[in-house]
Amino acid sequence: MKIVVLDAGHGGIDSGAVGNGLKEKDLTLEMVKMIGKGLVDNYSEVKVIYTRQTDVFIKLDDRSDIANKNNADLFVSVHINAAGDELANGMEAFYFKDSKATIITYNHIMNEIEKSAYKVNNRGTKIGNLSVLRNTKCPAVLTETLFITNKANSILLKNQKFINDVCLGHIRGIATFLNLKENKLVNSPSPAPSIPQKSEPANWLKSGGEYLINDLGLDKNYWTWDRPIRAGELGAVLAKHEAHLRELIKNAKQD
Ligand SMILES: [Zn+2]
């Protein structure tokens, strides 16, 4: 089992960079959640730990401590850049002790960006004496996805497809560095592949949904075939199913 610590830069009273109607702390949180979900959905033998999953302030030392205490195999800190010069723009990433994880992750991110032909300046990977890179024991990556202070970059940061692509680059980079095994059941490259497309449901999913509604009498407005199910709901379904079977057996005996 490989352990990845995902660190959403800033949070709470620390907004990070702010510009063009965007806050760094919000973007970084959205991105780490997408990256974490993509890793867990697409790869086996990987555990994701977040330094924060809500809008809270976490001290820099606490972020690296989370990685060190959990014996992480990789620490990835996600940031958005900013500069006094509004013309500064582009993608870059930092390493401190060991450049390999950063270079691999960065190359995957740039690959996804180039595949979709976004106009993004490739600023490359650099050494950076940054607290979270310096204080984590495991290999550590810090990505700076575009400049919030640049107009053209901020338009891309508001583009959900661009964010998806950059997150996919992170996912593929992390998986490559850690040599993660891809789940055989999932073959979509999307970071959120676990929800099938609404337009073409697999027949067994459809008929499963119909069984819940027609045979178990569940509400058709709530129990649509394509929504995820929580453990409590699964219990309710199984109880309904058991009652349904008992009814069938009872009727069979009377016949
Ligand atoms: Zn930052």
Summarize the biggest pleated sheet. 6 strands, mixed
**CATH class (first level) name of the largest domain:** Alpha Beta
Under CATH, the topology of the largest domain is which?
Aminopeptidase
Bound molecules: zinc ion
Distance between the termini: 54 Å
Secondary-structure map:
Elements: E1 2-8, E2 18-19, E3 22-23, H1 24-42, E4 43-44, E5 46-50, H2 60-69, E6 74-81, E7 91-95, H3 100-115, E8 122-127, H4 131-135, E9 140-147, H5 151-157, H6 160-178, E10 181-182, H7 203-214, H8 231-254
Parallel strand pairs: 1-5, 1-6, 6-9, 7-8
Antiparallel strand pairs: 2-3, 4-10, 7-9
Helix pairs in contact: 1-6, 3-6
The structure holds zinc ion.
Zinc ion (ZN) binds next to loops.
Question: Descriptors for this entry?
Answer:
255 residues, alpha/beta, Aminopeptidase, six-stranded mixed sheet, 8 helices, binds zinc ion
Description:
- This protein has helices spanning 24-42, 60-69, 100-115, 131-135, 151-157, 160-178, 203-214, 231-254, and strands at 2-8, 18-19, 22-23, 43-44, 46-50, 74-81, 91-95, 122-127, 140-147, 181-182.
- The chain is an alpha/beta fold.
- It folds into 2 domains: 2-182, 3-Layer(aba) Sandwich (Aminopeptidase); 203-254, no CATH class.
- The strands form 3 sheets. The protein has a 6-stranded mixed β-sheet with strand order 5-1-6-9-7-8, sandwiched between helices. The chain has a two-stranded antiparallel sheet with strand order 2-3. Strands 4-10 form a two-stranded antiparallel ribbon.
- Helix 1 (24-42) packs across helix 6.
- Residues 193-198 have low confidence and may be disordered.
- It binds zinc ion.
- Zinc ion binds at residues 9-10, 16, 24, 79.
- Zinc ion is lined by residues 9-10, 16, 24, 79.
